[in-house]
Amino acid sequence: xxxxxxxxxxxxxxxxTGSHADVIAGRLCDGYVLExxxxxxxxxxxxxxxxxxxxxxxxxxxxxxxxxxxxEKRGIPRFESVAEAIGCGRPGVDVxxxxxxxxxxxxxxxxFGQKLYPRRRLFDxxxxxxxxxxxxxxxxxxKGLSWSAGDARHMVDTARxxxxxxxxxxxxxxxRRRPAATVWPSGAPMDAAVLVGYGPTEMYGFHxxxxxxxxxxxxxxxESGVAAVEALLGDDARRAVADxxxxxxxxxxxxxxxxxxxxxxxxxxxxxxxxxxxxYRDGLRAAxxxxxxxxGIEDFAVACRGPEADIACHMWAQExxxxxFTFLVRQIESMILDGVAPYPAERTQLTTSVLDVxxxxxxxxxxxxxxxxxxxxxxxxxxxxxxxxxxxxxEG
Length: 396
Prior knowledge:
By secondary structure, the chain is α/β, with parallel strands linked by helices. 32% of the residues lie in helices and 21% in strands. It has 11 helices and 16 strands.
């Protein structure tokens, strides 16, 4: 590309091989392969803040820091504070965008089992720096906005009030689908939906909710929010699947998309760990079924039904080399280049908030919670260019 590229500050909690900092910042610095073409990054990373150094222990196994070496090899200066990174070592804002990757690292957990990532703190530090300088630039926040629904609301409201373009979420909404290009017809009414996913309760619980929300938000009327959440755990969750509280037809259709052997399907059914039942404000009923790791499922599948349409698809998050993150990086770049988020941060606010409600309910052993504060309305985009949504899954 010709001309100066927009300058970006990357704000990380920790940086090790395969971490979100690695697979996002690595592409922003070194480029990526998109649909068979090797492309240079459309932005330039000029500063980084790395909060934690040394070995990260709160992972399945200890992982050594590679962030300092990464920056040194590329000549990217590492700063001691968020403000210094955004100002490139001087007062003010000397970048055109901020990328916050607050995932992974040795942070404490609260009584509800939520990991207290400092995403709001890092966001607030970035915003304070911008306000002090009198200049705002777009911000991307990786994965959920926070562990707290209140923090998520604060972040979205702050960005809206100050006119800061805000993009958030993970690569799952952008992943390839099978069958390819499976989308709910925009504006078609929807009666029920079921998402089957897997993984650790909080870390992948967010992914599960995202994988549901990207389909149900396209229903007639757009998104209007969630009126109630019911969180079921262990035997109660498995009973909900067995007795039909989770729509049996839709659950089976979603499970069929995994193409499991009979033995693996039985193992997955026995591995159901949590169920989240959602009552949306417009009457839609949906369920998220979470299967424990190692129980036969390693992806996400959804089935949705309405009077005019029905769909079922598998969302492929296991692309070799973390290839699904390429689609996320394209969206980050596009927002920084255009100054417009390609999809609303309110989607991430809603999924963040539902997960917070569910985590607190599971801590009490489960139960139903009315959620008047989750009247979070937004209109989804008709399409998202440069994503895997309409792309075919590569063979092999």
